[in-house]
Amino acid sequence: MAWYPGAKRMELQPESDAQPAIRPTQLIYHSIAAPWTPRRTYEYWRDSTNLESHFGVGFDGSIGQYIGTQTRADSNMHANRRGDGTGAVSVETASNLNHTDPWTPAQVAALIRIGVWMHQHHGVPLRICRSHSDPGFGTHRMFAQWSDGGTACPGDVRAAQFRNEVYPGIVAAAGGKPIPKPSGGAVTIDGKAYGLGASGDHITRMGRALVRAGCGRYKEGPGPNWTSADTESFRAWQIMRGDDPQFCDGIPGPKQLARLLDMFGEARTHTVARGETLSAIARKYGTTWQAIAKTNGIEDPDRITPGQTLKLP
Known about the structure:
Layout: E1 8-9, H1 15-18, E2 23-29, H2 38-47, E3 55-57, E4 63-65, E5 86-93, H3 105-122, E6 136-139, H4 156-174, E7 187-189, E8 192-194, H5 201-212, H6 228-241, H7 254-264, E9 269-271, H8 278-284, H9 289-296, E10 309-311
Parallel strand pairs: 1-4, 2-5, 2-6, 3-5
Antiparallel strand pairs: 3-4, 7-8, 9-10
């Protein structure tokens, strides 16, 4: 089995060992119709279904690999394994719920990197597939044989991106030209970058606030360099806020970030207003009155006074 060195290996079992071998001659791009990180995609396929793809790519360009590329996966229907032993490698990508959004610049760069590796490692020819069995590159919607009758995946916008950005980028990069890098992270808020390629103390502060909010998905850190764990953690915060699931992509929005830092930033304090109770203050900041009382050495929670400054846990 072959594993792309630029991906995080998340091997699915028993599929990885139980499915037949293929000789990969095609690379087919998909949208999963969910704003999932590679880790969340892995967990879904591991726990909920025996369907799977070879790769998963998050909004931030992070890449997970679930099955070796010389082993059959399910995402391409009859392209998975043909009578001559050839088959297609599949790449699922995070999207909104209707796969109507474009690939992010970070996703485009990741798809190009996978494509170049497939060309160099497996000899996939630098052409767009001319038929369902023709070696090359394609999107899931191109041939009915790839989807048991037809599909819109990966959507109109991404199908156009494949022809105008991704495939030309693969050809250019295979010829020695550099792969375009997303500049400045996925977003810039108050002059600071958040997302793929972003780094700085502000990323650490955001991560610590996510941990305080109960949204931390870190095995190490948080630290100053943006990782897929930051994406997963911020997506958990978006979900906690009750945002529309199709927009819970793990990439900060200005209001989402401001709310996080206001509620869970470092050195938080609250000045008691007339009529406020410790329970009401706790609800406002997503904590408990017991935690506030312990932090401030308050023995009687009914004895707080207007103008009093409370440290928040």
